[in-house]
Please model this.
Amino acid sequence: MDIELLVVADCPNERPAADLLRATLDGAGLTRTAFTITVVVSQEEAECRGFTGSPTFLVDGVDPFAEPDADPGLSCRLYRAGGAVVGLPSATDLARAVSGCAGPGDNQAPSQSARRCVVAPTLGWVSGG
Model:
């Protein structure tokens, strides 16, 4: 499983998103699963990656929270959680997204974000168990 967290520079939700993702993976028994954080630096890259705001979680190149009418762009992303609009998905929703993509037989079609394109360099760290 390939997991990537896409963010814009200085995103206030980057660290909380990384912490939530690590806790979610650990809770799903995926303690040895690492993820990469990539900073999206241009509108062109946002469009190429299907990046609709920071933070965006990709599981095997698929944005499990994609909204079909969302425009790509360098902006903050909002998630619906428990009737509220917040900067991160709920732990439950993220766990469903990760577990839904974790097993064999994942038949989810690649989204626009799964297309190959030139991307910004990742930060100098990945999270592992």
User: Anything to note?
Assistant: The chain has three helices and six strands. The chain has one domain: 3-123. The first strand starts at residue 3 and ends at 7.
